[in-house]
Automatic annotation (TrEMBL):
Protein name: DUF3231 family protein
Upper lineage: Bacteria, Bacillati, Bacillota, Bacilli, Bacillales
InterPro entries noted in UniProt: DUF3231 (IPR021617), Ferritin-like (IPR012347)
Length: 184
């Protein structure tokens, strides 16, 4: 079976004429800045999730999500510094705390945590797709493709866990007028 991603990457690498690459255009710059900001805001939220849940599977996915965000922000930071793109402020990290010390009225449920992580991943995927489509520079486009693929893989893992635990929020089904359907 053909590996679509590898084939696409080979095509992009072989069709590149960016020697040396031009300066990033305003769309590429804005995409980097916004995604960096999204990741920088996501990391403390994930730290809060890690401080809240005791579910081992959810802890692993929250940690994986945090590790991926830190890796992607590091890659972006290097590119942005190299290209002279100003870095946004980064919020402070959250200290570790005991999940059992959080009062029940203030504590997020595992379902809420999983859905928060899921929506962050979905938002990141959309941002990566948009930025990939706006990229003229091959190296920047490939970076967005890599980030997109990493987020899709992580998103599939959280979706599986959410389905297993009954945490997945499903919109109402659509039945076009005149279509047969069960009223269960």
């Amino acid at each position: 079976m053909i590996n679509v991603i590898e084939t696409l990457l080979d095509y992009i690498k072989n069709s590149s004429t960016d020697d040396p690459p031009p300066r990033p255009h305003i769309g590429e710059t804005m995409g980097c800045w916004l995604y960096f900001t999204a990741l920088a805001e996501e990391i403390p939220a994930l730290e809060t999730c890690l401080n809240t849940t005791t579910n081992s599977e959810l802890l692993k996915l929250a940690q994986d999500s945090k590790n991926l965000a830190e890796s992607q922000i590091d890659t972006l930071k290097k590119l942005m510094i190299k290209e002279g793109i100003p870095l946004p402020e980064i919020p402070a990290t959250k200290p570790k705390s005991d999940p059992n010390s959080i009062p029940l009225g203030a504590k997020a449920t595992d379902s809420e945590i999983a859905n928060l992580i899921s929506i962050k991943i979905a938002s990141n995927i959309v941002m990566c797709s948009t930025n990939m489509g706006q990229s003229i520079r091959t190296d920047i486009g490939l970076m967005w493709l890599k980030f997109h693929t990493e987020k899709v893989i992580l998103g599939s893992k959280i979706k599986i866990l959410m389905q297993q635990k009954g945490w997945l929020k499903i919109p109402p089904y659509y039945y076009p007028p005149g279509a047969p359907h069960n009223s269960n």
